[in-house]
Design brief:
Blueprint lengths: L3 E5 L8 E2 L2 E7 L2 E4 L4 E3 L12 H10 L4 E4 L9 H10 L4 E3 L10 H11 L4 E5 L21 H10 L6 E5 L10 H10 L4 E4 L10 H11 L5 E4 L3 H5 L7 H14 L4 E2 L13 H6 L9 H15 L3 H9 L8
Parallel strand pairs: 1-6, 6-7, 8-9, 9-10, 10-11, 11-12
Antiparallel strand pairs: 2-3, 3-4, 4-5
Length: about 325
């Protein structure tokens, strides 16, 4: 069955930044935060201190994954330009989103460059307190639907119908958790598509929280959720992940299969469970019928990210900075 990995990260240079400080490469796929926390960021055999497009495609090919959506995150450090280069080099394999810190002095210039020059038609906001913007902007908590700096970005993106906004807002016990903001934005910007990462961070022991968030999204057909890293979030390594199947059953009931996007959150998630396991656990369950699987594994990501506007923008993109 055809698959699109709807949540993948390339890492040319490890440049992570969050509440733990900066992330520095150690080799052998490991990295260390400034506070001394050591992590295995890259799965064995996929890179010593980087996770290249070629390493990603090797894993994808082994798992019969046709294409992938390249997202950015504070864990790896924004890899905007490397993603642009690889999308241009392998347009049949990759599409992507860029990220920006909306509180940077040149935030709007960065946004305009990535949209107008580099042809991105998706933006990723990783605002989580645990791993994103709220981890190093905690002195001023902000909401995506009311902050004027973020609002300036949305006002600009409104000129691009079909633009995709992908959001990681962290867990329910973090100040960054704001499913209400996604519902408000989806209502106001009905021509945009919104994707909530990681199935809104499900807590297996508090499933009513997930249901409450998904019910906020249900009235808005322009809100999707990706399923990446839910194994890590619920702490599960027992394939095919029965706890994950339980929360996915709730998601299917509330949102339906046509609004769920499979993804892995590799490379980091592929250090806890293999890429092959992450690519096949849905088929190993009886949660979705064949038609639903085709939607979750392929068609939904194709519709949201690999749409004609995005593909055409990539074809037309060229970087004026390299033509000077």
């Amino acid at each position: 069955m055809k698959k699109i990995d709807g949540h993948l990260h390339l890492v040319r240079n490890i440049a992570g930044l969050n509440g733990k400080g900066r992330l520095n490469a150690l080799g052998n796929g490991q990295a260390i935060w400034d506070d001394g926390t050591v992590i295995q960021l890259i799965p064995n055999g996929s890179g010593a201190d980087s996770f290249s497009a070629e390493s990603a495609m090797k894993l994808m090919d082994q798992a019969d994954v046709e294409k992938a959506v390249l997202l950015q995150g504070s864990l790896n450090g924004y890899q905007n330009y490397y993603s642009y280069q690889m999308i241009k080099k392998y347009p049949e394999r990759f599409i992507g989103a860029f990220s920006v810190d909306p509180f940077a002095d040149n935030a709007m210039a960065i946004v305009k460059r990535h949209v107008e020059d580099l042809g991105f038609r998706a933006i990723k906001f990783e605002i989580s307190q645990g791993g994103g913007l709220h981890g190093y902007h905690s002195e001023k908590p902000f909401r995506l639907d009311t902050d004027p700096k973020v609002g300036e970005i949305f006002h600009y993106l409104a000129d691009y119908p079909g633009f995709t906004v992908t959001v990681d807002y962290g867990k329910a016990d973090q100040i960054s958790y704001q499913p209400e903001a996604i519902a408000n934005l989806a209502a106001h910007y009905s021509a945009m598509t919104f994707v909530v990462c990681h199935l809104s961070f499900p807590d297996y022991d508090h499933q009513n929280r997930l249901v409450a968030a998904l019910r906020l999204f249900a009235p808005y057909p322009n809100i999707y959720s990706d399923l990446s890293a839910i194994q890590d979030i619920v702490g599960e390594t027992d394939f095919p992940y029965p706890k994950c199947q339980a929360v996915l059953a709730l998601a299917k009931k509330v949102l339906g299969a046509k609004r769920l996007i499979w993804g892995t959150d590799s490379p980091w998630s592929a250090t806890f469970n293999t890429y092959g396991q992450l690519a096949t656990y849905l088929e190993a369950s009886d949660l979705f019928n064949e038609s639903e699987l085709e939607d979750v594994l392929y068609h939904n990501a194709e519709r949201v990210y690999f749409n004609q506007q995005a593909i055409q923008a990539v074809k037309e993109a060229s970087d004026p900075a390299l033509q000077q």
